[in-house]
Write a structure and sequence with these properties.
heterodimer, A: mainly alpha, 4 helices, 82% helix, 0% strand, B: alpha+beta, 3-stranded antiparallel sheet, 7 helices, 18% strand, disordered N terminus
Chain lengths: 110, 279
């Protein structure tokens, strides 16, 4: 409940403040958003599984975002930034799908 | 992390919701249960509740951050979807196009600046030439007697004595004045006739005075000349000069120096009959 409200507040802030993304952050922000989304989906799923641990959620959220950004940074340094970004997005996308499937099973039993 | 990804059809029990398989959720479940169900351990409750609240706040902040970042990313991505979605080769091509266009426009600007400069200098040159032509026309008009003139000069009055003043005397005077830098002049007679003295002016002795350019002039001749007054005055008064000669015949020459004089009589411009300008 609080999380949903916080999400709404964040979206509203982002829409209304409309800050410019700093140039150095531009490659990492999308990946970080995807990773954070993955963590949120995982958290929702854990909640439905009654296995939700808030501390674990916080730690995994931060570490997922940082690791995703780190991978992209590493890829940029190695010259395979776009490929590695694609790989990260694919992996995170698969995880989001599986989590979404679990959530769906919980909610609709289907 | 990746190996934690389950196939959708598989049993998901082994997968932690956060994708962190090494943390066992049971512990936290137990902790939550402890808070709710075990009144005997109430000594731990305040710390546990505080921790829960802190992590709850952290979750809220993180999720808000996610929403913020997602919204910002969406908006910044929407700003220029065409370029943001373009591939690197396309971007390079677009950049090259823009560079070429810039070069072309810079060339165009340079050309236009050049033509503007030429037009400006041409207009200035035209104005200068026009000014020069006007000046030349004035000069020639004064010389040819087709326009009036004014300036410093002298007014001479030739009064005859016993013998009338001859045309040769007036001609001498005019030549003397020309030699002294006369720029324009006219001769008036007592009968009101007035003739502009130009290059082609001739003086004849007439029955009743002088005939100047086919105009009969009588009586006291008044010559108005424009030039340097001092020089012309000196030229007239040299020994054996005009004033002396007229005085020898019994007449007098009165030289007035009124400062600025006006030569208003003009001659009609005439087209040369035979002479043509050489280009």
């Amino acid at each position: 409940m609080i999380a949903a409200f916080a999400l709404l507040v964040g979206v509203v802030l982002g829409v209304f403040l409309d800050p410019d993304v700093p140039l150095w952050l531009q490659p990492y922000l999308p990946i970080a958003v995807i990773a954070a989304l993955d963590s949120v989906f995982g958290g929702v799923r854990a909640r439905l599984d009654k296995k939700f641990d808030d501390k674990q959620f916080v730690v995994s959220f931060i570490s997922n975002v940082l690791i995703a950004a780190l991978i992209v940074y590493l890829g940029d340094q190695l010259g395979v930034g776009s490929q590695l970004s694609t790989g990260v997005v694919v992996v995170l996308g698969i995880r989001i799908f599986s989590n979404a499937a679990a959530i769906r099973r919980h909610l609709f039993s289907a | 992390m990746i190996n934690a990804t389950p196939e959708p059809g598989r049993d998901d029990d082994s997968v932690n919701g956060d994708g962190d398989a090494d943390l066992t959720p049971e512990v936290d479940e137990d902790a939550a249960d402890t808070v709710e169900e075990a009144p005997g351990e109430s000594a731990e409750d305040p710390g546990e509740v505080r921790r829960k609240r802190r992590t709850g706040i952290a979750i809220g902040v993180l999720v808000a951050l996610l929403g913020f970042a997602a919204a910002v990313q969406l908006r910044s991505h929407h700003e220029d979807p065409e370029l943001a979605g373009a591939r690197q080769e396309d971007l390079v091509r677009i950049l090259a196009d823009l560079d070429a266009r810039q070069t072309r426009l810079a060339d165009e600007i340079a050309g236009l600046e050049e033509s503007k400069r030429q037009l400006t200098s041409g207009a200035e040159g035209g104005a200068a030439a026009l000014e020069e032509a006007r000046g030349l026309a004035d000069e020639l008009g004064i010389l040819a007697g087709t326009i009036g003139a004014k300036g410093t000069g002298l007014i001479l009055e030739f009064q005859s004595g016993a013998t009338p003043i001859r045309a040769a005397t007036i001609l001498d005077a005019v030549e003397e004045l020309r030699g002294a830098g006369m720029e324009a002049g006219q001769i008036d007679g007592a009968n009101g006739a007035s003739v502009r003295i130009v290059a082609s002016t001739f003086f004849l002795d007439g029955p009743d005075g002088l005939i100047v350019d086919d105009v009969a002039i009588t009586g006291v001749y008044r010559i108005t000349v424009i030039g340097d007054p001092a020089t012309m005055d000196t030229a007239l008064r040299i020994p054996g000069g005009v004033v002396d000669n007229v005085g020898k015949d019994g007449g007098t020459v009165v030289v007035n120096e009124p400062g600025e004089v006006q030569v208003t009589t003009i001659v009609a411009p005439s087209e040369p009959k035979y002479a043509k300008p050489v280009d």
